[in-house]
Design a protein that fits this description.
By secondary structure, the chain is an alpha+beta fold. It has two domains: 61 residues, no CATH class; 38 residues. It contains one helix and six strands, in the order ββββββα. The strands form three sheets. Strands 1-4 form a two-stranded antiparallel ribbon. It has a two-stranded antiparallel sheet with strand order 2-3. Strands 5-6 form a two-stranded antiparallel sheet. A hairpin with a 6-residue loop joins strand 2 and strand 3. It is rod-shaped, with a radius of gyration of 35 Å. The protein starts with a strand and ends with a helix.
């Protein structure tokens, strides 16, 4: 935690945040506190003495770049209960075997086509 409005050099009238009654003294008693994470985003911090009160408002200018929030991908839930059905499990096995055979054929053809690219 850091006191932000003490980091920046300002004119004396933009530093103090409280005036003693009778204008006998001016003190900096109000602070802006920021976490270390946000220190590099604070551009300026000062008191605004233009209001006729004994307390001056303290404000900070920040320049923040927000990150884009990405949505979480939904998990694909497999319907494993359907594999208990003998007909569907047989169809699944046949489809997997057919895809594996096609995959092996592609692997056998690859070196021949690669030689043509040389």
């Amino acid at each position: 935690m850091y006191f932000v409005n003490t980091w920046f050099t300002q004119e004396k009238r933009q530093r103090y945040s409280w005036t003693k009654p009778g204008d006998t003294g001016q003190y900096q008693i109000n602070y802006i506190i920021a976490k270390c994470r946000f220190l590099n985003s604070i551009v300026n911090a000062k008191a605004y003495p233009y209001i006729d009160l004994d307390h001056n408002p303290v404000a900070a200018n920040m320049q923040i770049k927000l990150k884009q929030v990405t949505k979480a991908k939904l998990k694909q839930h497999w319907k494993l209960d359907r594999l208990k059905d003998p007909l569907l499990s047989m169809e699944y096995r046949c489809a997997v075997n057919a895809n594996m055979l096609l995959g092996f054929e592609v692997l056998l053809i690859l070196p021949v086509s690669y030689g043509k690219l040389r």
